[in-house]
Design goal:
This protein is an alpha/beta fold and 272 residues long. Helices cover 31% and strands 20% of the residues. The protein has one domain (7-271): Rossmann fold. Helix 1 packs across helix 8 (253-271) and helix 3 packs across helix 4 (137-147). The chain is globular.
Amino acid sequence: MRHFILFFAFLWATHAGYTQNIRYETIENISYVNENEVASDYAKEQCKLDIHYPTSGENKPIVLWFHGGGLTGGKKEIPTFLKEKELVIVGVGYRLAPNVKVEDIIRDAAKATSFVVQNADRYRGDTSNVFISGHSAGGYLALMLSLNKTYLEAEGFDADKLAGIIPFSAQTITHFTARKEQGIKEEQPIINELAPLFWVRKNAPPITLLTGDRELEMLGRYEENAYLKRMLSIVGHKHVKLLEFQGYNHGMVYPGLPVLIEEIGRLVKERR
């Protein structure tokens, strides 16, 4: 079923009563590479994150935002719309292909997530409400971390403790950069260990899938997400939904950001 997202609903989210007297600070270029870990200069350069957080008040939900760029480009970012919304926002950088393999990039994402959880108290972050999001390649990383538990387990964290996964136009079959590593054309879809769909499971955290218009999205991105939703439902996952932004193409970040905030509020309330 199509979900019709109306613009006036976004306007409500934009002005939804966020406290204005809280002060915020942004700290940039925090390394999440372990000091005792042997790391290349490239890893030390790329494996950094920026944190935007409130400097007073009670601890707030944490949102890790993974940037897009096909796993071959892009850089860490904190979307301006998410700032000063009573959240701890983390913009994560990671290594890129072809300098490293896709699996190495997923491991970077897991390491960053674990680092943020372990250091959350410094930034007034609520570790019981950790959300992972991101656009395109970033959404792919969010899904891989939540569905294939082994990546976060290797970093000492249980993926089932995540409060929610909210990916924007994520690849759910094997990522095209992973296919390229294997000499497979971008137009040839496959599902293997580097596909979120391969790891469909009942007890995954709540998942809200966001995509652009099925007629405007790149390749079959809407259909991939619809298939993931269907398969999660079949295995008994009870907290998954799909929202399609009609009239928007793959670059559907802005209409998605107010919905991201709304979904975080809903999921935090349900967890109380």
